[in-house]
């Protein structure tokens, strides 16, 4: 293989495949993934998306290792832009406006590009919106006279003060509401809602298009001016990665075999998965919204904009005789299972309930 791309919410698989049909597209990178990829001897590794919180992030030393082994490493849009700004002096190539803003010092915080998103089987659909994109929304709104400079600045400061999973277009409109008339607010919503532009997506696409122009057949190995030092910390990473791979292989028979069955998974398997998730210290919180949206989608309670329709969900709950407390408990369990499946790299088609129309709360 010549090109490995780590991507998720910033750019769709279809967009990557359109320009790089032979690329090996992988989920957002976590610590150890770059090291594993290097063992497959690609010529190029493109880092676009990567995990920030739930699991350890891609380590700088992995990228230095990759380049020392002759692999060309590019970064853009999200985690890739951040790492490229930190490692461009060593030879990592950054692409895009976000990368430029990090290198210039205009951006400093990791959470500028962070967001929460749905799992792989839902196409990594963004649930929140990155601060870099919200800031661009405000700048565009000011440029087109939907917001004054003072109002745009005030809203930006309020959005920046939020924890990144809570940064959404809805939050932007909530902060704008006291500053605008009802008519002005509706005009702002219409403008931003009908002209959705993502700087992260634009930068990711710029990188993919750049890679499209490279002839990997004649591409020579990356040359670096540093000597890679395999210290104790590096050996620890290698050991951790190899142990994790062995553990996954050991679980493949007794867990993955169940996941691939067509039959519904019983409560024992789900209970075991939940117990493991708790032992691993996984958090359901980042997955609450994806789990709820998954349920709403299966129940066909989605509006024209693709957002859950809470009134329709409430009507179904009422028809099922289900209390809000029971439903919330179920959503939390499903969210924890999504976190577990994502952590383990398993399909969640069976572990997470498929019979959403027949709500059955798990037994404690």
Name some characteristics of this structure:
mainly alpha, Rossmann fold, 3 domains, 5 strands, 51% helix, disordered C terminus, TfuA-like core domain-containing protein
Structure notes:
The chain is mainly α and 364 residues long. It folds into three domains: 3-118 and 201-212, Rossmann fold, CATH 3.40.50; 131-195; 263-344, no CATH class. It is 51% helix and 5% strand. The protein has 15 helices and five strands. The protein has helices at 13-19, 33-38, 60-68, 79-87, 97-104, 131-143, 149-161, 169-176, 182-194, 199-212, 232-259, 267-279, 288-298, 310-320, 324-344, and strands at residues 3-6, 24-26, 44-47, 72-76, 93-95. The chain has a five-stranded parallel beta sheet, with helices on both faces. Helix 4 (79-87) links the parallel strand 4 and strand 5 (93-95). The termini are far apart. Mean pLDDT is 85; it is low at 258-266 and 354-364. InterPro entries: TfuA_core.
Give the secondary structure arrangement, pairings included.
Blueprint: E1 3-6, H1 13-19, E2 24-26, H2 33-38, E3 44-47, H3 60-68, E4 72-76, H4 79-87, E5 93-95, H5 97-104, H6 131-143, H7 149-161, H8 169-176, H9 182-194, H10 199-212, H11 232-259, H12 267-279, H13 288-298, H14 310-320, H15 324-344
Parallel strand pairs: 1-2, 1-3, 3-4, 4-5
Helix pairs in contact: 4-5, 6-7, 7-8, 12-15, 13-15
């Amino acid at each position: 293989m010549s090109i490995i791309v780590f991507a998720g919410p910033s750019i769709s698989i279809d967009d990557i495949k359109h320009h790089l049909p032979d690329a090996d597209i992988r989920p957002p990178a976590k610590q150890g993934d770059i090291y594993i990829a290097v063992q497959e001897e690609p010529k190029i590794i493109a880092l676009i998306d990567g995990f920030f919180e739930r699991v350890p992030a891609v380590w700088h030393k992995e990228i230095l290792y990759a380049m020392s082994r002759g692999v060309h490493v590019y970064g853009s849009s999200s985690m890739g832009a951040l790492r490229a700004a930190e490692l461009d002096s060593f030879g990592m190539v950054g692409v895009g406006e976000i990368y430029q803003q990090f290198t210039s010092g205009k951006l400093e915080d990791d959470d500028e590009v962070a967001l929460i998103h749905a799992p792989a089987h839902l196409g990594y659909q963004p649930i929140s919106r990155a601060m870099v994109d919200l800031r661009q929304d405000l700048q565009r709104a000011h440029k087109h006279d939907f917001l004054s400079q003072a109002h745009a600045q005030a809203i930006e400061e309020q959005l920046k003060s939020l924890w990144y999973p809570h940064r959404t277009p809805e939050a932007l409109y909530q902060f704008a509401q006291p500053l605008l008339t009802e008519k002005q607010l509706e005009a702002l919503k219409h403008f931003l809602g009908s002209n959705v532009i993502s700087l992260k997506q634009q930068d990711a696409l710029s990188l993919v298009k750049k890679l499209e122009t490279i002839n990997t057949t004649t591409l020579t190995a990356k040359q670096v001016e540093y000597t890679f030092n395999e210290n104790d910390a590096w050996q620890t990473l290698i050991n951790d990665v190899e142990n994790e791979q062995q553990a996954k292989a050991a679980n493949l028979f007794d867990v993955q075999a169940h996941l691939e069955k067509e039959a519904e998974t019983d409560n024992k398997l789900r209970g075991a998965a939940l117990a493991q998730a708790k032992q691993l210290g996984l958090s359901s919180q980042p997955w609450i919204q994806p789990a709820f949206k998954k349920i709403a989608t299966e129940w066909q309670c989605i509006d024209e904009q693709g957002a859950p329709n809470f009134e329709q969900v409430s009507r179904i709950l009422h028809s099922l005789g289900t209390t809000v407390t029971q439903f919330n408990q179920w959503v939390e369990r499903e969210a924890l299972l999504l976190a577990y499946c994502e952590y383990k790299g398993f399909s969640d088609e069976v572990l997470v309930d498929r019979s959403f129309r027949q709500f059955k709360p798990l037994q404690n």
